[in-house]
Amino acid sequence: MAAEYATFGLAPATRAGGVLADGDYQVHRDFMDFIVDGRPLLYRLSDLDAVSPLASDVPPAIFTEQVRGLLLETAAPLSGGRYVIYGCPECANLACGAVTAVIVRDGDDFVWRDFAWQTGEQADLEFNGYHGIGPYRFPGAEYRAALAALLDDDRAAHARRRVLLIGARVALLARLAAALRTIGVGADITGDAGAVPAGELRAYGVVAFGTGADEEQRSAVRRAFADAGVDVPHVVGLAPIVPLLVAQIEHALEDGPAGRRRLTRLTATGAAADVEVTSPCRVRLTAYRVDRLHRTRVHEVFDGVLGAGTHRVALDAATVKGESYLVARAPGSVLVTAVTPPEPG
Predict the structure, then answer these.
(1) How far apart are CA 123 and CA 93, in angstroms?
(2) In the 8-state DSSP scheme, what is residue 240?
(3) What is the pLDDT of residues 120-174, one digit of tens each?
């Protein structure tokens, strides 16, 4: 198949971490995604939880090596001239599986072809090839400019994966901070942001208020950040449930425009949830309910692949009765909503 010209670009992307319903954790990763013809290449791979090699948390020397490899300035890491395009977000081990492709020069152009799912030294194109993806021919000047810019860019500006936690329930905030650190997000606790130097405030990507923080306290924190000249998302906790708070913070940490996220809308009533998906992907819906004794009840209500568009998922009324919340997760995206109680009668 002849390679047709395509545009090439890069954009910040996030693999949202989180505390899952079964108690497991998944690590938060920020990375640069490949934008082909204006659309993230990862979105063409419908059910893949992966990140590109251009992740913000890899050591600078390794990051530079990855960029130079994509520019074909160093030898291919895999046989047959193959390069890793997306890998495991937890360990980056090839044994977990990776999307690889052959990258070659053709004149001044760069061609990506023969995409495949690979778990060993050799790729089997017949059984594991992505036959509907590529080949892509990228104009050399555009391709080199996009990748070379990464070597000059201050990546710290895209890696503010640190959260300032503020609230009255110190024990809850301590558990929340521990959970965030487990998934790779730094967290600090304070009762007065005004006492934090401006330089330190600029290191935070999100401010999260616990349920015990009142409006006066939240206003003081907003003023402190405004005086420091930094604008960050402010998250007000929906309920004292650590996995739910983690999901709210993960959503606030997501980078890039909404159009480049897998999940763009989530609403829920006592009967059904409506979730909007931008491209085919696996979606998991988890319900959190606070019962009359203030205990947390957790239920997995959906786990499956959804196509692009808006989908309605039926909910068991007993699962989401009373004070309930819903968390939707897809590769690289998370949304949270309170469940709207049914109308009386």
Answers:
(1) 15
(2) S
(3) 888 888 888 898 898 999 999 999 999 988 886 544 444 457 898 988 788 889 9
End-to-end CA distance of the chain: 62
Query: Taking the CB of residue 234, how many other CB atoms lie within 10 A of it?
Result: 16
How far apart are the C-alpha atoms of 18 and 91, rounded to whole Å?
Answer: 16
Alpha-carbon span 133 to 16, nearest angstrom: 25
Q: Return the SS3 of 166.
A: strand
Tokens encoding 45: 């791979």
Of the candidates 210, 231, 258, which is a domain's last residue? 258
Say if residue 69 is in the same domain as residue 80.
yes
Beta strands in 122-224 (DSSP E): 136-138, 162-166, 186-189, 206-209
pLDDT at position 159 = 47
Same domain, 181 and 286: no
Element (H, E) at 28: none
**What backbone torsions phi and psi does residue 12 show, to the nearest 5 degrees?**
-60, 140
